[in-house]
Amino acid sequence: MGAAEPMRYLVFGNSGAGKSTLARRLAAQYDLAHLDLDTLAWDPVARTQRRPLADSARDIDAFVAREPRWVIEGCYADLLALLVDRADALRFLDPPVEVCVAHCRQRPFEPHKYASPAEQDANLPMLVEWVRGYPTREGPLGRPAHEALFQAFGGDKERVGRPSKDASHRGPEAQ
């Protein structure tokens, strides 16, 4: 008999890496609740300001308390770190930066993030600049923090989109 499919996934990576696409696919395939950390990370009024970590953590705790099976996605290593001990699997989406830029340029309108398509389009130059800074960005929104999160996790984990000799690792529960 094979191992059971993970019930609690964390999906993370750069903007435009495909986190939402993968999270939606996993949610549909395995009947998982889906949480986009963008909805909890930013102040709803001052939309360019992060909420206090404790406020986001409280909302994350409420979500996982009511949802035993989930996929949570985002680029916030500080928020993901609050969940890593409760996750069964990590998926680190790590394509080259220019792939992420192309995805951002093709992104459909996101009404949960922008008031209008024009507002989203006006933000595109800033988003592209942000995406290009990912490999060396310090703090919880950069690739170094994501790499550390990935390396520290001892369970079922996979890096998608960037070949490397340690590209994936399946923990004992996945064998």
Any idea what the radius of gyration is?
A: 16 Å
Give the number of domains: 1
The helix/strand class is alpha/beta
Strand order of the largest sheet: 2-3-1-4-5-6
Largest sheet composition: 6 strands, mixed
Briefly say what this structure is.
By secondary structure, this protein is of the alpha/beta class.
Question: What does this 3D model show about the protein?
Answer:
Helices cover 41% and strands 15% of the residues. The chain has 175 residues and is an alpha/beta fold. It has a single domain (8-174), classed as 3-Layer(aba) Sandwich (Rossmann fold). A 6-stranded mixed beta sheet has the order 2-3-1-4-5-6, sandwiched between helices. α5 (97-106) packs antiparallel against α6. Residues 163-175 have low confidence and may be disordered.
Task: Draw up the topology in text.
Layout (H helix, E strand, L loop, with lengths): L7 E6 L5 H12 L2 E4 L1 H4 L11 H14 L3 E5 L2 H5 L7 E5 L3 H10 L10 H17 L9 H10 L3 E5 L7 E2 L6
Parallel strand pairs: 1-3, 1-4, 2-3, 4-5
Antiparallel strand pairs: 5-6
Provide the descriptors you would attach to this structure in a database record:
single chain; 175 residues; alpha/beta; Rossmann fold; 6-stranded mixed sheet; disordered C terminus
